[in-house]
Write a structure and sequence with these properties.
The protein has nine helices and two strands. It has 179 residues and is an all-alpha fold. It folds into two domains: 79 residues, no CATH class; 68 residues, no CATH class. Strands 1-2 form a two-stranded parallel ribbon. The protein starts with 24 loop residues before the first helix and ends in a 5-residue tail after the last helix. The relative contact order is 0.12. The model has no long low-confidence stretch (mean pLDDT 85).
């Protein structure tokens, strides 16, 4: 999260104390989060969701928009958990935030990025379709190799989405109108 005009994003990591499941070895290897870590440093789900939504609401009062990789999937998981926890006011806000959000997997965004960087096939036609977050960042954010290596941790994926949005806004500012 953060203002795209600032030098660094604001990242806050929260772990949720698992209910009825354990972090698998495969999950720990991919995301770097272990069962022991979440038991020691985790919050109850309801508390983590309330804190998350309150932070988003505060950002929205300053004109922020939600930007996420695979927004429909992630937002759906959060909405389902809000529903399960009985957080109806938070769910109402979340629905509005998601509807006005930006998905880094949007094929139109992928096409725009490819057009911007001149990603063409052997016949000189612009390639089309969605790009993964790492690909978008590789194409649009200089000197991002180390960050891309840390992909699949929530804070680093959020930082990549923030940097991507920052890069898109900067590129749009250079062209008028931004299409």
């Amino acid at each position: 999260m953060g203002d795209i005009h600032s030098d660094t994003p604001t990242t806050i990591s929260r772990y949720v104390i698992p209910d009825d499941f354990e972090v698998t070895a495969e999950g720990a290897a991919k995301h770097g989060v272990t069962q022991a870590l979440v038991k020691e440093h985790g919050l109850p789900l309801t508390e983590a969701l309330k804190e998350f939504v309150a932070s988003a609401q505060e950002a929205f009062t300053r004109g922020a928009r939600l930007a996420a990789h695979q927004i429909e999937f992630g937002a759906g998981v959060i909405a389902a958990e809000q529903q399960r926890c009985g957080l109806h006011q938070e769910l109402e806000f979340w629905d509005k935030a998601v509807r006005g959000g930006i998905c880094t997997m949007d094929p139109l965004l992928g096409n725009w990025i490819r057009d911007q960087i001149g990603d063409v096939d052997e016949q000189g036609r612009s390639r089309t379709g969605p790009l993964g977050l790492k690909d978008c960042v590789r194409l649009m954010v200089p000197n991002s190799a180390e960050l891309r290596r840390q992909h699949h941790t929530a804070d680093k994926d959020a930082e990549m989405a923030w940097l991507l949005c920052k890069s898109i806004v900067a590129r749009c500012a250079q062209t008028s109108p931004c299409e």
